[in-house]
């Protein structure tokens, strides 16, 4: 049995928030969540699990050898920038925007289709954290909106949810969606583009889901990176509980995570802690 650790930064403050959210009821709550390595596991056999986008990049049988070569060349250039903590956020946002646009344009250039997305999702499953269906069902049964905000290709993300029977009625996706031609071939990505570092600029009030959540001032936020807390930017909340899955470089990253999250889950766990907390606040 794999052991995991729960770190609560301020237990008294967390209990206060939980109590107030429970008192306000389900109709005042919504959930904001990252997708890759948050609702899915972060590690497998000590290695990073695939993200939605890497399913295309890592296997040339879908879009061809030339696509994979060019996509991995982009990865080799930009990924070191993405993970370099010494680079300013302003510069990093520009570089990541360049990377995402180049890669999404490359995918369209090599003839991504809706049918190919379905094939990739069927053949290359993601490992959803155990208890994910229970988590989503708990929220759906109480009519609590869940918004996935992700830098992934949104059409693939939605298909992963759909094929795993996780695309419930309460779920919305803010992600990178393609425009399609009459033959269901990708033309170009819609703007604005969501990257790994600009979620603070992806303001929820610019999206249709805002009308459903604007009066739901209590928020549970789930992420696996420091930038994920930016999902709440621009939203006038009453109570906010932020939970992180810290999957790697724990010793190095923990101090920074403690500054921005309320709860940090170590050991790449299932959804047990999150489900327990949700049950407590949705009595």
What does it look like?
It is a single chain. The longest helix has 21 residues, at 89-109. The chain has helices at residues 11-24, 54-57, 60-63, 65-82, 89-109, 114-123, 132-141, 154-163, 210-213, 250-260, 272-281, and strands spanning 5-8, 29-33, 43-44, 47-48, 146-153, 171-176, 178-180, 186-189, 218-223, 239-246, 263-266. The protein contains 11 helices and 11 strands. The protein is of the alpha/beta class and 283 residues long. A hairpin with a 2-residue loop joins strand 3 (43-44) and strand 4 (47-48). Helices cover 41% and strands 18% of the residues. The chain has 2 domains: 5-45 and 127-281, Rossmann fold (3-Layer(aba) Sandwich); 47-122, DNA polymerase, domain 1.
Q: Which CATH architecture of the largest domain would you pick?
A: 3-Layer(aba) Sandwich
Q: How many independent structural domains? A: 2
Instruction: Kindly estimate the percentage of residues that lie in beta strands according to DSSP.
Output: 15-25%
Number of helices: 11
Order of H and E elements: EHEEEHHHHHHEHEEEHEEHEH
Mean pLDDT: 94
Tell me the distance between the termini: 30 Å
CATH superfamily of the largest domain: HAD superfamily/HAD-like
Strand order, largest beta sheet: 1-11-10-9-2-5-6
Which geometry do the CA atoms define?
globular
The CATH first-level class of the largest domain comes to Alpha Beta
Structural class based on helices, strands and sheet pairing: alpha/beta
Number of strands: 11
Question: CATH topology of the largest domain, which one?
Answer: Rossmann fold
């Amino acid at each position: 049995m794999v052991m995991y650790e729960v770190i609560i930064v301020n237990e008294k403050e967390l209990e206060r928030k939980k109590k107030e959210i429970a008192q306000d009821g389900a109709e005042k709550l919504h959930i904001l969540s990252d997708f890759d390595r948050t609702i899915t596991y972060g590690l497998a056999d000590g290695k990073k699990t695939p993200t939605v986008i890497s399913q295309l990049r890592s296997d040339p049988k879908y879009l061809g050898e030339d696509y994979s070569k060019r996509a991995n060349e982009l990865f080799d250039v930009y990924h070191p920038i993405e993970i370099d903590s010494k680079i300013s956020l302003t510069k990093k946002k520009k570089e990541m925007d360049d990377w995402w646009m180049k890669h999404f344009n490359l995918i369209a250039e090599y003839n991504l289709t809706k049918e190919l997305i379905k094939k990739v999702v069927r053949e290359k499953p993601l490992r959803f954290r155990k208890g994910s269906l229970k988590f989503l069902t708990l929220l759906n049964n109480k009519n609590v909106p869940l918004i996935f905000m992700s830098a992934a290709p949104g059409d693939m993300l939605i298909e992963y949810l759909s094929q795993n029977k996780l695309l419930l009625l309460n779920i919305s996706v803010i992600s990178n969606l393609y425009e399609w031609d009459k033959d269901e071939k990708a033309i170009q990505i819609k703007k604005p583009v969501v990257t790994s570092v600009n979620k603070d600029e992806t303001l929820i009030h610019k999206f249709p889901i805002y009308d459903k959540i604007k009066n739901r001032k209590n928020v549970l936020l789930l992420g696996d990176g420091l930038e994920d807390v930016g999902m709440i930017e621009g939203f006038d909340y009453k109570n906010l509980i932020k939970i992180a899955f810290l999957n790697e470089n724990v010793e190095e990253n923990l101090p920074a995570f403690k500054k921005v999250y309320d709860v940090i889950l170590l050991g790449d766990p299932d959804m047990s802690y999150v489900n327990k907390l949700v049950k407590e606040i949705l009595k």
